[in-house]
Amino acid sequence: MEEKRELEQDEVLEEVKDEETTEEVVEEVEDTTEEVVEESDEEDTLSMVRKLKDEKKKLDNELNTLKDRLMRLSAEYDNFRKRTSKEKEGIYTDACVDVLKELVPVLDNLERAISVDGNVEDLKKGIEMTIKGFKTSLEKLGVEEIDTTSGFDPNFHQAIQVVEDENLKTNDVAQVYQKGYKRGEKLIRVSMVTVAK
């Protein structure tokens, strides 16, 4: 019986040893697995870091390219703005010169009229010729007198007085105090008129 007990004890001891060995093996496997996982994680991390560095380099290059384009566009726009401003000034100057070329001869005629000795009739005739020359200059510049024969138009006429006149229809222009002018559809000055009611 004692032998039987010893045998049983030996078996139990062996089982305990086996369990201890199993635990040791499990621990060793776990340690090895952790090392492998750690090594794998390090490789993955390094790979990810490389990828991120490459992507950062690519984005930096793209950013620098866009910055360069922006600076070039900004410089081009600034040059365009300066050039446009100069052209505008040039156009305005050219327009003034064109107008003045037409008006200077009228000034010459007025100066001649003052310097000439003569009677009132000659002076009147000279002024009429100067007015005719001035009107010709305005026509060359495309300026025309605003028509008052077709009745009162608030877009082109300013009524300074309203009168009753049996000979005129309602809204007819009875009298022009100051002529108005326009160039094309652009109004230069309204006509000041008396309107019939």
UniProtKB/TrEMBL annotation:
Source domain of life is: Bacteria
Give start-end positions of Acidic residues composition bias: 8-45
Q: Please identify the protein, giving its name as recorded.
A: Protein GrpE
**Subunit details:** Homodimer.
The record ties this protein, via InterPro entries, to:
GrpE, GrpE_CC, GrpE_head
Q: Report the protein's function.
A: Participates actively in the response to hyperosmotic and heat shock by preventing the aggregation of stress-denatured proteins, in association with DnaK and GrpE. It is the nucleotide exchange factor for DnaK and may function as a thermosensor. Unfolded proteins bind initially to DnaJ; upon interaction with the DnaJ-bound protein, DnaK hydrolyzes its bound ATP, resulting in the formation of a stable complex. GrpE releases ADP from DnaK; ATP binding to DnaK triggers the release of the substrate protein, thus completing the reaction cycle.
Matching PROSITE patterns, A to Z? GRPE
Identify its protein family. Belongs to the GrpE family.
Q: Where is this region: Disordered?
A: 1-46
Q: Which organism is it from?
A: Clostridium hominis
Where does the record place it? Answer: Cytoplasm
Keywords assigned by UniProt, alphabetized:
Chaperone, Cytoplasm, Stress response
What is an example of a Pfam family matching this protein? GrpE
User: What HAMAP family does the record tag this protein with?
Assistant: GrpE
Q: Which gene encodes it?
A: grpE
> Could you confirm whether the keyword Glycosyltransferase appears in this record?
no
